[in-house]
Write a structure and sequence with these properties.
The complex is a heterodimer of chains A (53) and B (173).
Chain A lengths: L2 H18 L3 H19 L2 H8 L1
Chain B lengths: L1 H12 L6 E4 H6 L10 E5 L13 H10 L3 E3 L2 E4 L2 E6 L4 H8 L2 E5 L2 E5 L2 H11 L2 H13 L4 H10 L3 H11 L4
Parallel strand pairs in B: 2-5
Antiparallel strand pairs in B: 1-2, 3-4, 4-5, 6-7
Helix pairs in contact in B: 4-5, 5-6, 5-7
Classes of the chains: A mainly alpha (53), B alpha+beta (173).
Chain lengths: 53, 173
Amino acid sequence: MSDFMRKVLASKRETRKRLVELPFAQKLVLLEKLRDRSLLIASSPLRQQHRHS
Amino acid sequence: MKATLQVINQMQADGVIGQYAIGGAVGATFYLEPSATLDIDIFVSLQARPGSLLLSLQPLYDYLVTGRKYAQQGEYIVVEGWPVQFLPPGDALGEEAIAQAIATDIEGVPARVMTAEHLVALALQLGRGKDFSRLLQFIEAGVLDATRLDQILTRFHLLAKWEDFGDKFLRKS
């Protein structure tokens, strides 16, 4: 594994650790944002087109 | 989601449901980093109607759909914008998961969340791809109490499944 990839993975681990340590209420706010994004992506015309083709 | 939980707390105060516990992805978020989910799984203890031995979700639907006009979408009821699936415990593991849930607080709104070990045991029992993925997240996050998990897995005859999971996903060849 390259040094670059090692740094990327370490950074991801750090971000995940930071997210895990957030208070539950803050995590739920993020969860709501993730849900809104998921719904937005699901309603995209491109995705609809793909589903019906 | 706070508003959704307020309604669920009110249902409990009004005697429509007994104890409840948040499970699934939202419950897991208590211990892990948030991951996208479209619904909330609420495990609920139900009380049998007077004169009946059968447990029914009907009073819950009467309260939310007929009484409070929340929309029903398949097996979900959309409560304050969130599709909620109410799940009566299917077995003793589900009952214990509700009984031993952790009381917490979301900016002043009380809520009960399953313990990490019960979430893991239930995920193992279900055994879908996304359940295994969640199991790995729990292990990587280091939030499990090994002794407590071992006791639960033993009590509910899930050790063989745990071994299989370990063989498939944790052992290096």
